Amino acid sequence: MSLPLFHPDLWLLVLLNVLGWLFLQLGLAFVAVRLPLKWFRPSAFLFATRRFERGGKLWDRLFSVKAWMGKLPSGAALTGSFNMQNLGRRDGAYFTRFAGETCRAEATHLVALCLVPLFALFNPPWAMIIHVSYAILANGPCLLAQRVNRPRLLAAAARQRSRAG
User: Fold this and answer.
1) For the residues of 9-35, what is the DSSP string, one character each?
2) Which of 14, 143, 59, 149 lies closest to 95, judged by CA?
């Protein structure tokens, strides 16, 4: 068996790709927001901040994340997910919840990146360059924003706990 499995006309290929990415991204988000938040612990191996990240400062220094992360689109209205555009409250429980939601978002964007090979089922090899590029450009900034924000949120939650107790 060789890929692609079928060879649609160009117009159909473009339509399949656009709809494929739309349904993939929104579908993943729709499923992720319905999973228990306890599955997305900031201390879990996948989400834990590594020493080399220096509390997210590495990513901000390399990519100026704080300068553009407020411009990232939010799917919250479409998927019923947590709104990460603004801080809703400034208490420890909220910061902790927000940190967990960054893990959920990171997992969703990582899964989207991992599913890029599905597009090889109906795309010629040259189109996969476009898909990999799109996947990185669409998901990479969101992943970076989560890696920058989570340590800051956890630090804010810790400060709130120390003040309270």
Assistant:
1) -HHHHHHHHHHHHHHHHHHHHHHHTTS
2) 149
Residue in the block written with tokens 């993939």: 24
- Alpha carbon separation from 93 to 72, 85, 98, 143, 150 (Å, rounded): 25, 18, 9, 23, 14
| Tens digits of residue pLDDT in 47-94 | 999 999 999 999 999 999 999 998 988 776 666 667 666 677 778 888
pTM for the full predicted model: 0.88
Over its C-alpha atoms, the chain yields an Rg (Å, rounded) of 18
